[in-house]
Amino acid sequence: MPCAIMGGMPLQVIHLSARRNSLHPWIYSRMVRHPRRRPAPGTLVEVVSREGAFVGRGVYNGASTIALRLLTENPGEDLDGAFFQRVLARALGLRTEVLRLPEVTDAWRWVHGEADGLSGLVVDRYADVVVVEPYSAGYAGETLGWVVEGIRGLAPGVRVAVRADPMTERRERFDLSEAARVHPAGAPVVVREHALRMEVDLQAGRKTGFFLDQRDQRSRVAALAAGRSVLDCFCYTGGFAIASMLGGARRAVGVDLDEAALATGRQNAGRNGVDVRFRRADAFEVLREMAGAAEGERPDLLILDPARQASLRAEMGRAARQYLDMNRLAMQAVLPGGLLLSCSCTGLVSEPEFLQTLTRAASEARVALQVLLVGGAAPDHPWTTPFPEGRYLKAVLARVLPLAKVGPATAGGRAGAC
């Protein structure tokens, strides 16, 4: 079994069976010449081309479709504690020195996976707690210890919590239960974001506890909300609804099926000194209800921020129908001339595909969208050109305008001229 030497330690060599034609950090199983005795999922390896030339070093998982996740393509760079300290420091510098996020919030993404050079790893900071959530078996052993040590060295005094996504654990074949026991999530924390104060459940909350990627959209909604009636569908713990009330909205309603999230939302509304009506209901049913309601009851600012609708290509047909239906209903529910913020966090749905879905929904709803902005995740969720998959969130802000009705023909047989 061929080995390379990394920092004085032997490192198994994995050969590619096909030519690598891009700088994408993922190398799929079909491109790899797997050893007869495959290393355990998450093993650090050296990768060489089919001709034997150095390609990089990274994580091997023969049980995954993504067999290799490259972490460095520098032959002089070892994968050790010092490496992870350097990468974490570089990611921290982007957030604190370039983006200057601590000036406006104490909740932000520290590591956004591939875009920050750590494929398969998410690190989020919530006040004095740093949440580590691996999406790769490569962070289930000694590597996780290096990450935790690096975080503590760069942010003294923080508490580190390790979370695992059960679906990822099954797919990647690793177990983080012991790490989660050693580094528990602990009690909820309260974070600040501009004027907003939100409680975050680090143990059972969605994602790592809060939708950090929607920070800019929440600020935008607050800036547009004065005097408006707001409907926040799929509201989770109320971020958009509460931000809109802080921005001067006339009223706000948050809709979700998760009663625990709504209970936290009610607490968050009180914490911010605003009155938000939270409803445990199916967003589709509420949108149908609003579409038939009197004008005084309909929203003129409507937010759609549903959960990811597809994780696999096989689920894309259903996801496309869901996006089409919810957006058509939203366009029928919002007051004519009102604003719609429609979002998709399904990475398999591209921005052009999402815009095409909105265009079709507008046609079926007999409205026209006056698109004001096509945005995405906040800049602490960057993406790189070799890894465009990192650009997963789409957020479209538009006015919803009724189509002009066709009037009776004039005496000359023409409906009008330009």
Q: Under the CATH scheme, which class of the largest domain?
A: Alpha Beta
Number of strands: 20
Which architecture name of the largest domain does CATH use?
Answer: 3-Layer(aba) Sandwich
End-to-end span in angstroms?
77 Å
Number of helices in the DSSP assignment: 10
Helix proportion: 25-40%
Main β sheet profile = 7 strands, mixed
Order of helices and strands: EEEEEEEHEEEHEHHEEHEHEHEHEHEHEE
Number of domains: 3
Helix/strand-derived class?
alpha/beta
Overall mean pLDDT:
92
**Low-confidence spans:** 406-418
Overall outline: globular
What name does the CATH topology of the largest domain carry?
Rossmann fold
What does the radius of gyration come to? Answer: 24 Å
Write a structural description.
The protein has 418 residues and is of the alpha/beta class. The protein has three domains: 3-72, Roll (Archaeosine Trna-guanine Transglycosylase, Chain: A, domain 4), CATH 2.30.130.10; 81-186, Transcription Regulator spoIIAA, CATH 3.30.750.80; 211-402, Vaccinia Virus protein VP39 (Rossmann fold, 3-Layer(aba) Sandwich), CATH 3.40.50. Helices cover 28% and strands 27% of the residues. It contains ten helices and 20 strands. Strands 1, 2, 3, 4, 5, 6 and 7 form a seven-stranded mixed sheet that branches. Strands 16-15-14-17-18-20-19 form a seven-stranded mixed sheet, sandwiched between helices. α6 links the parallel β14 and β15 (251-256). α1 crosses α2 and α5 runs parallel beside α6 (239-246). 43% of the residues are buried. Residues 406-418 have low confidence and may be disordered.
